[in-house]
Amino acid sequence: MNKDRAYHHQSLSEWIHRKNSSHYSPIAPSYQPALLKIEMEGLKHDMQITSGASSCGQRKTKNISPDTPLRDRALCNFEYVLNYNPRRIPAALTEVKCSCLRPSPSLRGRYAVECEPLRYQVRVLLFDDMCNTYSEQIETIALACIPVLQASASSNGEPLEMQPIEADIPMI
């Protein structure tokens, strides 16, 4: 029985740490060119994985088609950044950083819109300095950069009124 348990622990550890040509992290962008920089330079914390979306106020491409990558169609420009901690499982998490405070003026319309990160909480295992013990922790990472109405603002200076939407509350 202990042999089976050790095998399961080893299998789980190998699965968690597995890296291959398409996934260096359990949360990885589907934007494949991002992987090239990691392959060339290795894993480093706060490393900017992509570039080119940082020019605020400009459209990246004139023609948008269904084949245009989501990153190039986004209203809020963003870059993928690596959140890396070798004492954490998973060690590598990909997150985004908003490149601009606001979408391009030509895309905003009449509302005061700004770009904000959409954050998620992820459970991780964090080892102590000697890697002898670990504890479960919660880390907050940004998975998207989304356009939102600016708090307490409108195009004509009056506060915006939000309309409530009726929704069933899930029972747990």
TrEMBL record:
InterPro entries the record matches: Cystine-knot_cytokine, IL-17_fam
GO molecular function, one term: cytokine activity
SUPFAM superfamilies: Cystine-knot cytokines (SSF57501)
Domain of life of the organism encoding this protein: Eukaryota
Gene3D superfamilies reported for this sequence: Cystine-knot cytokines (2.10.90.10)
Keyword terms: Secreted, Signal
Keyword Secreted: yes
Location(s) in or outside the cell: Secreted
Pfam families linked to this entry: IL17
An example Gene Ontology CC term for this record: extracellular region
Family: Belongs to the IL-17 family.
Entry protein name: Uncharacterized protein
